[in-house]
Write a structure and sequence with these properties.
The chain contains two helices and three strands. The chain has a three-stranded antiparallel sheet with strand order 1-2-3. A hairpin with a 3-residue loop joins β1 and β2. It is extended.
Length: about 130
């Protein structure tokens, strides 16, 4: 009888010799049909005007983005459960309402984007 239990493709983790840890308090997303680029940066308050300085980017394929969404949500929700409170979000950082536009001027893709954005924003507001 053969073992039908799926085996993980990765048995251990190892850090590269040039591995580095960075801090980011700003994230920017760019997407293509093939992948998503995530650019990490930080607010530079020592400049006038204050700027967001982009430090590095990571590009990941869509399946990895979807898995990352699962793992991020798991970590956020378990952290909130452990501390017994929601992670606070400043009101000025809440994703804004989209501006109203003439519905007749919206193409199908824009209408779909608006519907998804509004649904996700409503779910997000319920979680804060």
């Amino acid at each position: 009888m053969s073992d039908t239990t799926p085996k993980s493709a990765v048995s251990e983790f190892e850090r590269a010799s040039d591995f580095t840890t960075r801090y980011a308090n700003n994230i920017n997303f760019e997407s293509t049909a093939w992948d998503m680029k995530i650019t990490f940066g930080h607010v530079e308050r020592a400049t006038d005007p204050v700027v967001i300085r982009h430090d590095f980017s990571v590009t990941i394929p869509w399946p990895q983005a979807k898995l990352a969404l699962f793992w991020l949500r798991l970590h956020v929700e378990t952290t909130e459960a452990e501390v017994g409170a929601k992670i606070p979000i400043r009101k000025d950082l809440i994703p804004p309402e989209l501006p109203q536009v003439d519905a007749q001027k919206e193409d199908a893709a824009m209408k779909q984007f608006r519907e998804i954005y509004e649904r996700l924003r409503t779910e997000f507001l319920a979680s804060v």
